[in-house]
Amino acid sequence: MTIDSHGFPAPPALVEHARRFRAEGGTPARPRVAATVLLLRPAGDDFEVYVIRRVAAMAFGGVYAFPGGGVDPSDSAAHLDWAGPEPAGWAGRLGVAPDAAQAVVCAAAREVFEESGVLLAGTYPSTVVGDVSGDDWEAARQDLEARRRGFAELLAGRGLTLRSDLLLPWSRWITPEFEPRRFDTYFFVALLPMGQRTRDVSGEADHTMWVRPADALARAEAGELTMLPPTLVTLAEVAAAGDLAGVARASATRDAATPITPRLDLPADGEPRFVLG
Q1: Is 118 inside a domain boundary?
Q2: What is the pTM of this model?
């Protein structure tokens, strides 16, 4: 799919939301801070990204996206062993205060474990846990997802350190004003840790898959996959990096602090399109 000035097609449900919002003179909802993670893995000379399709009953249901979700109050209050850039360093990259930066990074690691079964943590600052698909890990994941247990408690109980250095900042997107549920979402990329595997674990997804970014874009253009602008643009950006080393290099200079908000153009004649800027 070519990312250009013509914009992106808009799902009919979102067009309906936008028309109703404008007709009623609605007040934009306050965005909830969130985090999402592009899990990447090698695939021959190329690489793949892990995507999930949200269940139809959810906000943005039926749409393919990356694992992620809103920052939880426990993410802000978490006291946990931490490896990689300190919260003050993350604050500079994300454009927020150190405590808010810690919450976003913690949410990214927590959500990717909740929604894909991948844990970005290790016994030491230089290690990563291996297979976490056993029954005991699944019970811990379910406790975390149900908020019966905090992420910091889970890590501390197993003597683990959060590997914040495994998360690479990429971008920041804010949901359009007409949406009743809005998110201020920080996008990260991360390489699937060796020895771990994704699992279709989250009740929020009804389909998951690994796919090459270019293939995902082609299938979206063909109408096989429904994706919103943040997902489409991000897939195009990581595809343009060429390989996993290129993605890591690109991340070092990415602006992950300045938010991007898609705008829905509703012409009197013609097809509604999402446009950027």
Answers
A1: yes
A2: 0.92
